Amino acid sequence: MVFDVDHGAYGRWAVVHVTGDLDWTRSASLLDTVERLWDHLRDGCLVLDLGPMRFCDSSGISQLIRVFRGCQEHGIRMTLAAPPAFFRRMLNTTGLIQLFEIHETLEQALSGLDGWGPDANAAPASSI
Q1: Arithmetic mean of pLDDT, 9-34
Q2: Residue 87: which of 51, 122, 112 has the closest Cα?
């Protein structure tokens, strides 16, 4: 599975759009996608857009934790944007809600990032 990625101006941030199901058959692809971004995002921000996600199982949660830890190791701020209600319940139930920075919408997650907005030089979506 390939995730769409939007790159921000000057390589300071990227958005990975998590679409469909994040389950045991697809969750490893998330880590593969993000690992390709780590060297380019040092001291920047990774936003995981969860709005299009329909389902997530324990392997998906496990990969999100791996992504979070990898971001910490690389000095990258990680945020979750637009998590569906079912996913928020999972995070609350497991206590993982405290681990992640969460924004209600993708726009809110991006609002504090350098180079975002109508005049930004953001590259179009690409696939990794």
Answers
A1: 89
A2: 51
